[in-house]
Amino acid sequence: MNRGNLTNISDFLLMGLSKWPENQQLLFPLFLCMYLITVSGNLLIILAICSNVHLHSPMYFFLINLSFTDICFISTTVPKMLVNIYTQVHTISYVKCLTQMYFFTLFVGLDDFLLGMMAYDRYIAICHPLHYSMVMIPKVCILLVSGSWIITNSCSLLHTLLVNQLSFCAEKTIPHFFCDLSALLKLSCSDTYINDLEIIIVGGFLVGAPFALIMVSYIRIILAILKIPSTGGKYKAFSTCGSHLCSVSIFYGTIMGVYFLPSSTHLDNSDMLAAIFYTIVTPMLNPFIYSLKNQDMQNALRLLSKRTFSFR
Q1: What distance in Å separates the CA atoms of residue 301 and residue 50, rounded to the nearest whole number?
Q2: What angle do CA 195, 205, 219 make, to 5 degrees?
Q3: What tens digit of pLDDT does each residue of 187-212 get?
Q4: Burial (Cβ within 10 Å: 0-12, 13-18, ≥19) of residue 85
Q5: Is 192 in contact with 166 (CB distance < 8 Å)?
Q6: Is the torsion defined by CA of 216, 220, 223, 225 positive or negative?
């Protein structure tokens, strides 16, 4: 209660990217290009999979959902960031800030769950190939994705409702380019014990459960691959999950760097750069990661391009 007078906050200031005033003219075209590449790349992935019956399998069903989530994820933060850079007006209304926080939490959680499901899918395919068609049936895949939407929506709504109960001080500057939950709690003059406890329990579940599933799945996968006698067989088995492992490493590596390392280890602007990486760079890289070394995806993209040009 000593950080400022209580007030009815009507807006906040997103001042994250103003830390680099000398680069403001470069930031707008840079992030605009990254946003357009992300949206177009993930849309191509979705269209290529939907238009090719040979890719109508559980792995690509999860990839479609991941691409859709990445489009929504980056659209939650980047358009507002681009407007702020272009107009040099950094305000965001209280309602829009909570809305952005809700959708950001939702799509981060969905990304976590989808990456976990994709790891489990690869585990069944490599370690129990004979049971794959019986375990990963369409009904199970739909239930997994639907359940993820319900869980993440519920958790995001709980976060938002609890923040909405807080009172805020006169200070309204958020040192970030989006409405980050932890940054909002630091601005509150209310007791945030319940919010902090809820973050530990619910947030820990959203991140911890999928991460544990990924770790267990890949430990089993690695052990199974090591038992394959031929080098070619090992390479073929690992190539089916290499793209996913790369995406997981980038996503979780940057998130843990921001939220789990001690604050004393953070360098100036390191949190900002890490947040940019997992909110913008990772969704942009995913279409390349899942298509560059995937022959089936490359063939589907070629077929899609041929159909597109033939219609013209």
Answers
A1: 11
A2: 150
A3: 888 888 898 888 888 877 888 889 89
A4: buried
A5: yes
A6: negative
Measured CA distances, 261 to 153, 182, 204, 255, 267 (Å): 27, 14, 15, 10, 11
* Cβ partners under 8 Å of residue 130, min gap 6: none
Q: How far apart are CA 38 and CA 244, in angstroms?
A: 17
C-alpha distances out from residue 294 to 8, 40, 192, 300, 305, Å: 53, 19, 47, 10, 17
For residues 132, 136, 137, 139, the Cα torsion angle rounded to the nearest 10 degrees is: 170
Cα 278 to the chain's mean position, in Å?
7
Give dist(CA 290, CA 297) in Å, integer: 8
Cβ–Cβ < 8 Å for 174, 96: no
Local mean pLDDT, 10-residue blocks, the chain (312 residues): 53 81 82 95 92 88 94 95 89 93 94 92 90 92 95 93 87 86 86 87 84 90 84 72 77 68 49 79 86 76 75 56
Give CA separation, 8 vs 5, 98, 101, 157, 188, in Å.
10, 15, 19, 22, 11
- Are 148 and 110 spatial neighbours (Cβ–Cβ below 8 Å)? yes
φ/ψ of 6, rounded to 5, equals -65, 140
SS3 state of residue 49: helix
Token pair belonging to 36:
């357009």
DSSP structure string for 123-192:
HHHHH-GGGHHHHS-HHHHHHHHHHHHHHHHHHHHHHHHHHHT--EES--EESSSS--HHHHHHHB-S--
Amino acid (1-letter code) at residue 18: S
